[in-house]
User: What shape does this take?
Amino acid sequence: MRILGDSYIKREFRAHREVENPIHIVGFLKEWQMYAQQVEGDSWLGEKIDREKIDKMSAADQQLGQLYELMIAIQKRQDSEEEV
Assistant: This one.
């Protein structure tokens, strides 16, 4: 799971490298700091994303699509681990 998250983070940071709006930068960094704190242990397992955060995601920026792709990748990985 961590491997998927780490590669996702790298892509996100690269995609936001040129962002100049301070509000977007602060929000982006705040969310990733919270993510980093959560993945340190297993406390995040089974946790759901707040509806408010989903509502703030922009379909135009493909955030919802990326979230969906991440969910599918995690499910596939879990399924392959269960088969072993």
The chain has a mean pLDDT of 77. The radius of gyration is 14 Å. Helices lie at 2-15, 22-38, 51-56, 63-83. DSSP finds four helices and no strands in the chain.
